[in-house]
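haha ok so turns out i had the wrong file open the whole time. this is the CORRECT one, sorry everyone. sequence first:
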Amino acid sequence: MEAPLLDGEKQTLLKFARQALYAAAHNQQLPPLDLDALTPRLRAPGASFVTLTKDGQLRGCIGTLQKQFPLAEDVRQHAIDAALHDYRFASVQPEEVDQIEIEVSVLTTPQPLEYSQPEDLPHLLRPDVDGVILIQGAHRATFLPQVWSKVPDAETFLDMLCEKALLPRGEWRQGCLEILTYQVECFHETNPA
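then structure:
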C-alpha cells in the first residue's frame, strides 16, 4: 500500500478541486497543470473520487477506479465532472460554489475478493474500511467506504450495490458475482471557499 499523502499534498489537491469547481460553474477553462512543480506522488498516476455536498446533502460525486492520469489532474477532472456531469443532479450554478464542500477520496488499486460461498461475502467485507466493486457481465457498480455509514449491515450494503448495478436486490446471494475491494484516503475542506 502506498504511503499516506502528506498534509500539504492533501491541501494542494483540495485547492485544485476548488479551482476546478469554480471554473466549471463559471464555464471557464482551467490552465494546464505545471506537473514539474508538484510532488512525485501528485504527478504519479492516481485514481480518485470527488464528492460535493451542500448543506450536508450530496450535490455530486464522480470518480474512477483506474489509475490513468497524474493524481492532481485526476482530482481536477473529477471535480469538474461532479459539478457538471453527475446525472443525478443539475449542474452546479455559480451562486452555489461558496456553499459547496469538497471531499476527495484517493483510492488504492482494487483487489479481487476470494470467496467460495455467497453467504461468506458479508463476513469478508470490512465496514468503513472497504470500498466494494461488484461486477456481473456488463453490470458493475461501486460504493466508496463512506457509504457504510449510511447502511445498517453488510447484507443491505450488498443489496444496494446490486441495485446500483441494475441487478435484482439480493443477486449477490446467487454466487455469480465478481467482487473487488479497495481502500481510500479521504479528506475534505475544513473551511470551504
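The two ends are 32 Å apart (CA to CA).
again sry for the mixup
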